[in-house]
Input
Amino acid sequence: MGKKKIVVFTGAGISAESGLKTFRDSGGLWEEYKVEEVATPEAWEKDPELVLTFYNKRLKQVMNAKPNAAHYAIVELEKKFDVQILTQNIDDLHERAGSKKVLHLHGEITKCRSSSDDSLIYNVKNGQIRQGEKCEKGSQLRPHIVWFGEYVPHMDTAAKIAAAAEIFIIIGTSMNVYPAAGLVDLVPSNAPKYLIDPQAVTKDYIQNIVVKRERAGTAVPELVKNLLK
Ligand code: APR
Output
């Protein structure tokens, strides 16, 4: 009998205590920037320089940030459970904390890719993507991020992972953005679920869920301690 499967579904809130802005909180990124100006294919066509500046700024912030107690607690779970992270976050704090199985649904800020061939993916060099920096086929490099209106890759894989979850933990997401937000609907109804978010909105149609209206840095280590007992 292998280890019990825990799936951890995270959003921007888990990285808030690492100093990275969320999107829809007060002071969030979408208050500071218009989505359509920096996070859509149209924005990229219209003003690539503005888009690159936006993501280069966020990459610098990610590079200066550190994983927090919540990221590290999830790594602890691997002692007793088969842990798979499904994250909407583009930061690499889960990986830097030591998590092994992390599936990024909305891309990764530490990577860039060819603007003409999605399969050509590179690590961002020198902490920024520059205008004129090209892929091996001669096309401009772009952030390896899923912009609004773009296809969300790995959803079929993520759906299979959610459907096989024996425990499902949701941390720091407003559950506003689909298809990612729909993953919880695929989790077996009898699997225990936890939602950790200070402003958590209970989705009362979800069965077997415990809501903890607390910050991740406090509530995740506590939950992990209980699960490891
Ligand atoms: N601990 C836990 N949760 C927190 C904390 C914290 N310290 N601080 C804020 N939160 C919660 C907020 O209450 C909110 O519910 O984190 C959630 C962040 O929600 P959003 O800002 O909407 O971020 P997220 O759900 O990850 O957004 C999903 O939208 O903009 C797109 O692609 C982007 O991946 C992102 C997606």
Observations:
- The first helix runs from residue 29 to 32.
